[in-house]
Amino acid sequence: MSYILNTSNENISPFDIGKISGTTNPTFNTFNVNWLSMNGDNINSDGDISYYSEACFSADTNTYGIARITYSGNTSNYHLMGCQLPESSYTGAGGVSRGDDIAIHFGNSHYPNYSVAASMTTSQDVARANLKIIKIEI
Amino acid sequence: MSYSLNKREMKVLLTKTNNSGNLSANDIVNINTSSIYNNTGCTINSNNIVLQTGYYLITCCIGINNSNLIANYADWNLLIDDVEQSTKGSSTQDNKVGIDGSTAAVFVSSSTKTLKVKITSLSGTCSIDDGFSYIMIKKVDL
């Protein structure tokens, strides 16, 4: 009988930070671990292993928006959604805005996106926007 | 014959900042060496944290005091062995959505790496409110 040694490696980490690549729209399509892959809009885990994620959206300009993560096509049973609201002391919609709220999801398929958006551009500050990825079963 | 399953669990370090005075660009933020909780085995020094081997998810949120113009802001980032990471943090800022934490996933395969928090850019007179500022480290052993 033989055994395969379970070696440590960066790409099997239970943690990762998803980033936006190639577009400033909120599509978190860049990650480092080897147990995730893109399937259309979804970030799927190998072997249907459920994982947890936090999406921190960071819009570049005026913003009212509700951010969420769920799997593509789902319209119910959302987990916690994130809220982005303008700060009111400046005139004009969203002259100064705040976005310290995150959307979370637990499942084997994740699609971070804006559920509702008004008076805003959804273009992101890609240096700030991030998707924290945590595999619970380790 | 019996086998021992190598079951791993997530460990946590949570501490606050310990910074005083007005900020300047390129400042390294001082850290409270008395953690709120720490079972990671990592060592907290006055302006850095030494990471032992393991997988890490690190987040740093900083509360910025801004006594004059609302346009003032501060950006910060995590340094791993003095290298800036890909996701910076920022206080609220004109025409931006602000108050985002800086974050990084870090792999320490051998020896150690050193974590610092750096003020990467600054506008106006700002300081850190330690009561609203923290470093959270999640760790899984190799």
Task: Please tell me about this protein's structure.
The complex is a heterodimer of chains A (138) and B (142). In chain A, strand 7 and strand 8 (96-98) form a beta hairpin. Chain A has strands at 15-20, 28-30, 36-39, 42-45, 51-56, 64-70, 82-87, 96-98, 103-107, 109-118, 130-134. Chain A is mostly beta strands. Mean pLDDT of chain A is 78; it is low at 90-97. Chain A is globular. Chain A has a 6-stranded antiparallel β-sheet, with no helix packed on it. Chain A has one domain: Jelly Rolls. Chain B is an all-beta fold and 142 residues long. Chain B has a single domain (12-140), classed as Sandwich (Jelly Rolls). In chain B, 0% of the residues lie in helices and 51% in strands. Chain B has no helices and 12 strands. In chain B, strands 3, 4, 6, 7, 8 and 11 form a 6-stranded antiparallel β-sheet that branches. In chain B, strands 2-1-12-5-10 form a 5-stranded antiparallel β-sheet, with no helix packed on it. In chain B, a hairpin with a 4-residue loop joins strand 3 (43-44) and strand 4 (49-51). Chain B is elongated and about 65 Å long. Chain A binds chain B through residues 6, 8, 10, 13-17, 19, 32, 56-63, 84, 87, 89-90, 95-100, 125, 127-130, 132-134, 138, and chain B through 6, 8-10, 55-57, 59, 70, 86-90, 92-101, 103-105, 107, 109, 138, 140, 142. Strand 8 of chain A pairs parallel with strand 9 of chain B.
List segments of chain B where confidence is low: pLDDT < 50 over at least 5 consecutive residues: none
Helical content of chain B (DSSP H or I, runs of 4+): under 10%
Q: Please report the two chains with the greatest interface, counting residues with C-beta closer than 8 angstroms to the partner's C-beta.
A: A-B, 37 and 32 residues
Proportion in β-strands of chain B: over 45%
Biggest sheet details of chain B:
6 strands, antiparallel
* Class of secondary structure makeup of chain B: mainly beta
Give, in order, the helices and strands of chain A: EEEEEEEEEEE
Any low-confidence stretches of chain A, pLDDT <50, length ≥5? 90-97
Q: What's the number of extended β-strand segments of chain B?
A: 12
Number of strands of chain A: 11
- CATH class designation of chain B: Mainly Beta
- Terminal CA distance of chain B reads 25 Å
Distance between the termini of chain A: 25 Å
User: What's the average pLDDT of chain A?
Assistant: 78
Report the CATH C-level class of chain A.
Mainly Beta
Helical proportion of chain A, percent range: under 10%
Identify the overall geometry of chain A: globular
List the quaternary state of the chains: heterodimer
- What's the gyration radius of chain A in Å? 17 Å
Number of domains of chain A: 1
